[in-house]
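Sequence only, no structure available. Ideas?
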Amino acid sequence: KPAARLEALTLLSGSQMLGLGLAAPLGHFLAARFGGAPFAFGAYAAVCVAAAALAWGLRGPLARLPQLPMNAVALSLPAVGRVLRSRAWMPVLMMGLSACTFAGLSTFQSLYARPLRLTPDTFFLTFTITTVALRFSVASLIGKLPLRPLALCLFGVTLAGIALLAVNPGSVWLYVGATVLFATGYGLTYSTLNAMVVNIAGESDLSMPVASQVFTLGYFAGAFGFPYVAGRLIAAHGIDVVLGAMMA
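Reply:
I predicted one. Tokens follow.
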């Protein structure tokens, strides 16, 4: 059911954000204590092997679970076209734009924080704690809320967080507060929009796995595409212009 689907997607995205948010401070810790960046990269490689082993071990148990009938699972150009011609294109685009804000803040956090004499790891730790706590605590409740008003509120809170970062003169408490707002808004956006896409696919007789994969591609387009754009803007105009672009 859609509510159970949203709960599962919220828990899944909480686990995802736990890894994304802890990557930078954990890497700094490992590099400082155990022999520099090569050790940190080696540790992350070991984590990748462990994750691959877990995924391989799950293949059997997952195959034995009851499955919904799916008319398509693999991506293809016609299947992608059907998804993007439906109403699902809107939350896909919204997720791509939302991912731009996360990618911009996470990639260039050092350039933002250090001139203000703030510690970038404060952003990552605050963001991770807030996002993971929210996703795991409200996962069972979020499915009971109307998705469109919820998405609108989340984008508003995300905007408020970035705006506070833009006007922060260097206050640690304002830095933490702005990060909490951003993490609250952005942190629940992924699962909300993902559920919206999958629900639209179900209502439109489209493949839900394909729709979910198209949604993920939209996320990665924003997450990996925006840092290039933001880097060019920073080189030409500085970090404040990038904050303005993310608010826009």
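The chain has a mean pLDDT of 89.
Hope that gets you unstuck.
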